[in-house]
C-alpha cells in the first residue's frame, strides 16, 4: 500500500478522553474513532489488525478440530427465558422489542443459541464430540465504559462451545482449548498466563482466564514467576492425544497463578518468596467447563449406544479479539508509539523515501516495494511529499516492526538502511539484501 493513497488519519495531539496508553495510541495512530460511549469505528489500520488476529484464531481453532460458523447478533429472548438467564443476566444485556412487540436482545454471549442448534440437529452419540465456534460482535451495556477497546460496550469476540457425551470427554475439550489458546497467543507475540479464575455469571466448575501482564490491567494477579519462563515454542501437539494435551495443561497450570477473585494467600505462601509476584493483568480469554447446566435447561440430549437418553456435557471458550489489540499495545509500546509483533502487524515493513522526486531514490523504493509484494508480503510505502522527520514519526507511531529507509546518500554507496522498531538498531544493506532479510524474518512467522 502506498501511504499517499491510504486513509491514515493520525493525530499529533493526544485526545483528552484517553486514559491509558493503548487508547491514546489507537486514537493517535488512526486505528479507531469513537462513535459513542464504548463504541468505536474501526478505521483501516485498526481493521487490518483485527483481521490479522482473526486469521490466527481461525487457523489455531481449526488446527484443534473446531468448526467455524456464524450466529446472529440479534437474538430472540425466548431461548434466554427458557434457560432462565433473561432476567438473571442484569442491566448489561441490551433488550429491545421488534415491530411485532417480541422481546429481542443484542447478544452478550451465545450459549443458548449454540445449544439450540445442537439440540435441533444432533441426535446420536455417533455425532459427538463436537466443538463449534464463531467470531462475532457482542454488546454488553457497561455502566462505565472506559479504556478504549479494553472495556467497550461493543466488542469482537471468538466464542466456542463443545458438546460431549461424558465429563471426561468434555474435560479433554477443555484441555484442548487451553493448548490451542497458548499457541494462539504466542503466535500473536503475547505471553498470556492461564490463571484459575472465578466463573462469573456464566457459571461452571472449571475455568481459567488468560491474562497479559500490564500495569493498566483491571485485575490484580498473583503468580509464581517460574510460569513466565514457559513457552509453547515449536512443539507439535496431536490434539486428539488426550495425554499430550493433559501434559501441556499440567505444565502451564501446576504453578500458582490466580486472579484476585480466587487468590488463596495460604497457598501462595508455599511459593518460594523470591518467586512470588503480585501484578496487574488484562484478561484476553477464558475457558469454562460447566457440565450439563445449559443442556439440561434446554433439553440438549442424544440417544446413547443402547438407545438411552444422554444429556450433553458442555463448555464454552472465549477470546476477546478487539480487546486483544489493546492488550498487545499495552505490552508493546514506547514513548514514540506502538511496537507491533511480526505476527500481527498491519503492514510487514515500512519503506521511507527520503527524497521524493529524486529519480534514483524513487526507482529504488519502487523496486523494494514490488519485490516485497511479489514475495507475498504487505509493505507500506511512504511516498508522500513530506519531511523526513514527519515520515519517521508516522512509522514509529503506527509501529511497523521493520523500516527500510532509502535516500540519495545511501544509494550513492549502494545501500539502504534496515531498522528494527523494537530495538532501534539499524544496519546498511543493499536493496536486494534488505528485501531478502525481511522475507527471511516473515518466513518463520507467516
Helical content class: 25-40%
User: What share of the residues does DSSP label as strand, in percent?
Assistant: 25-35%
- CATH homologous superfamily assignment of the largest domain: Bira Bifunctional Protein, Domain 2
Number of domains: 2
Shape: globular
CATH topology of the largest domain: BirA Bifunctional Protein, domain 2
The number of distinct helices, counting runs of at least 4 residues, comes to 14
- Regarding CATH, which class of the largest domain? Alpha Beta
Nearest-angstrom radius of gyration? 24 Å
What's this, in brief?
The chain is of the alpha+beta class. Helices cover 33% and strands 27% of the residues.
Give structural notes.
By secondary structure, this protein is of the alpha+beta class. The chain has 2 domains: 335 residues, Bira Bifunctional Protein, Domain 2 (BirA Bifunctional Protein, domain 2); 97 residues, Rossmann fold. The chain is 33% helix and 27% strand. It contains 14 helices and 23 strands. The strands form 6 sheets. Strands 3, 7, 8, 9, 10, 11, 12, 13 and 16 form a 9-stranded mixed beta sheet that branches. The chain has a 5-stranded mixed beta sheet with strand order 20-19-21-22-23, sandwiched between helices. A hairpin with a 5-residue loop joins strand 5 and strand 6. Helix 2 packs across helix 6, helix 2 packs across helix 10 and helix 6 packs across helix 7. The protein is globular. The mean pLDDT is 94.
Topology:
Layout: H1 21-28, E1 32-36, E2 39-42, H2 44-63, E3 67-68, E4 74-76, H3 77-83, H4 85-88, E5 94-97, E6 103-106, H5 111-121, E7 130-139, E8 154-164, H6 167-187, E9 193-196, E10 206-213, E11 219-224, H7 242-253, E12 257-259, H8 265-268, E13 276-291, H9 293-298, E14 301-303, E15 309-311, E16 313-320, H10 321-331, E17 333-334, E18 337-338, E19 349-353, H11 359-374, E20 379-382, H12 388-398, E21 402-406, H13 408-412, E22 416-420, E23 426-429, H14 431-443
Parallel strand pairs: 3-7, 19-20, 19-21
Antiparallel strand pairs: 1-2, 4-6, 5-6, 7-8, 8-16, 9-10, 10-13, 11-12, 11-13, 13-16, 14-15, 17-18, 21-22, 22-23
Helix pairs in contact: 1-10, 2-6, 2-10, 6-7, 11-14
Amino acid at each position: 500500500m502506498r501511504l499517499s493513497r491510504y486513509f491514515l488519519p493520525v493525530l499529533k495531539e493526544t485526545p483528552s478522553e484517553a486514559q491509558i496508553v493503548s487508547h491514546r495510541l489507537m486514537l493517535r495512530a488512526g486505528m479507531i474513532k469513537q462513535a459513542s460511549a464504548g463504541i468505536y469505528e474501526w478505521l483501516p489500520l485498526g481493521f487490518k489488525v483485527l483481521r490479522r488476529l482473526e486469521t490466527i484464531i481461525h487457523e489455531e481453532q481449526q488446527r484443534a478440530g473446531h468448526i467455524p460458523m456464524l450466529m446472529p447478533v440479534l437474538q430472540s429472548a425466548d431461548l434466554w427465558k427458557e434457560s432462565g438467564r433473561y432476567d438473571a443476566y442484569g442491566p448489561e444485556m441490551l433488550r429491545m422489542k421488534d415491530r411485532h412487540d417480541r422481546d429481542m436482545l443484542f447478544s452478550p454471549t451465545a450459549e443458548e443459541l449454540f445449544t439450540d442448534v445442537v439440540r435441533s440437529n444432533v441426535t446420536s452419540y455417533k455425532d459427538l464430540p463436537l466443538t463449534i465456534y464463531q467470531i462475532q460482535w457482542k454488546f454488553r451495556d457497561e455502566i462505565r465504559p472506559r479504556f478504549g477497546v479494553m472495556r467497550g460496550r461493543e466488542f469482537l469476540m471468538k466464542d466456542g462451545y463443545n458438546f460431549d457425551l461424558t465429563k471426561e470427554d468434555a474435560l479433554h475439550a477443555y484441555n484442548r482449548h487451553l493448548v490451542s489458546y497458548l499457541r494462539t497467543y504466542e503466535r500473536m507475540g503475547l505471553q498470556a498466563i492461564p490463571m484459575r479464575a472465578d466463573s462469573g455469571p456464566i457459571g461452571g466448575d472449571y475455568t481459567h482466564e488468560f491474562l497479559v501482564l500490564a500495569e493498566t490491567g483491571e485485575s490484580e494477579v498473583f503468580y509464581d514467576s517460574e510460569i513466565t519462563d514457559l513457552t509453547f515454542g515449536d512443539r507439535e501437539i496431536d490434539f486428539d492425544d488426550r495425554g499430550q494435551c493433559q501434559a501441556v495443561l499440567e505444565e502451564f497450570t501446576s504453578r500458582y497463578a490466580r486472579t484476585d477473585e480466587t487468590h488463596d494467600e495460604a497457598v501462595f505462601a508455599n511459593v518460594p518468596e523470591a518467586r512470588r509476584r503480585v501484578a496487574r493483568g488484562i484478561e484476553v480469554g477464558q475457558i469454562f467447563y460447566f457440565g450439563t447446566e445449559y443442556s439440561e435447561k434446554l433439553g440438549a440430549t442424544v440417544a446413547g449406544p443402547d438407545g438411552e437418553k444422554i444429556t450433553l456435557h458442555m463448555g464454552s471458550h472465549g477470546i476477546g479479539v478487539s480487546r486483544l489489540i489493546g492488550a498487545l499495545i499495552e505490552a508493546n509500546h514506547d514513548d514514540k508509539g506502538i511496537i507491533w509483533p511480526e505476527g500481527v502487524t498491519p503492514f510487514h515493513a515500512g519503506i521511507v523515501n527520503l527524497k521524493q522526486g529524486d529519480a534514483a531514490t524513487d526507482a529504488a523504493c519502487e523496486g523494494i516495494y514490488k519485490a516485497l509484494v511479489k514475495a507475498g508480503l504487505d509493505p507500506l510505502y511512504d511516498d508522500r511529499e513530506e519531511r523526513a522527520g514527519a515520515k519517521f514519526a508516522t512509522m514509529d507511531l503506527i509501529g511497523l516492526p521493520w523500516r527500510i529507509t532509502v535516500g540519495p546518500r545511501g544509494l550513492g554507496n549502494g545501500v539502504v538502511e534496515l531498522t528494527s522498531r523494537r530495538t532501534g538498531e539499524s544496519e546498511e544493506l543493499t536493496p536486494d539484501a534488505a528485501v531478502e532479510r525481511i522475507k527471511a524474518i516473515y518466513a518463520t512467522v507467516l
